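Batch manifest line 314
LIGAND: PPE
JOB: complex structure
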Amino acid sequence: MAFQECEKIWMNGKLVDWKDAKVHVLCHAMHYGSSVFEGQRCYKTKSGPVCFRLQEHTDRLFNSAKIYRMDIPFTKDEINQAILNLIAYNKLESCYIRPLVYRGYKQLGVDPTGCPIDVAIAVWYWGAYLGPEALESGVDICVSSWNRPAPNTFPAMAKSGANYANSQLIRLEARANGYTEGIALDTFGHVSEGSGENVFIVRNGVLVTPPLGSSVLFGITRHSVMTLARELGIEVIEDVIPREQLYIADEVFFTGSAAEVTPIRSIDKISIGSGKRGPITKKLQEHFFKYLAGEIKDTYGWLTPVPQEAIVSR
Ligand code: PPE
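JOB STATUS: finished
ARTIFACT:
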């Protein structure tokens, strides 16, 4: 889906016009995948736009940077403020938020020492990640022939640009074979995650998701759904999932900031449960979306209101 452009992008502390938010072709990240990023959403509520789990995303951004020995030249508070201001400045009611930390332009060669650490934040409207009907009807997916990275290769807990080379292989293969998305196994053959989503299965009323050791990103939506499910009295466990468990699960769904909670109706052309969105998936979706819309109490302090006016003057 092409961008719905808005007015400004934040780059290293300055608001620049969308069309001018450019980098040099010889910047380090272009060649070696030396970037870390976040993906998060801002939702429309009756009392104005709110960022969902802003602090947790910023914390994860700093953790990803730490793993790659990148010192972000801004504080977490500065990043949070920059995000809130940018949404206010662009006057968006709801949007996707993409903070990016990357090794910039100075020299090439794998050793990035000396290249600047640049930071950019973009916001834009982004609809349903896996298609307009996906949230209700569910998606048809496959198990990928690509694995997620083995432990001690590309760290799965760091949301680094480099990890998305693997994600692209998964996604492109799925698309080439007529599927919306692929689930990858880890190098031990256990279920890991989608190219850009965590996976949950429902088995006899219990929600199961692969543990962090199965090469998964520590998804913030994953954590949110686990928390909300427990609140609804649903048992949730993290457990190693064999591939075949996917096919015989009662329900399977994806979670992610972009994908939100998306039901999976078939895997490798095998119908999952009734072949439609399952009752537990629906219940969780409803609870999740109500929370995001500010229709229920923000018990966990997950919603940060966007100020009505940007602090940065025009
Ligand atoms: N696993 C992967 C590999 C992943 O990329 C994401 C998010 C998740 C799990 C879910 O994490 P969380 O968003 O914290 O619940 N993928 C982001 C990027 C998607 C893209 O195409 O770009 C996202 O959802 O924003």
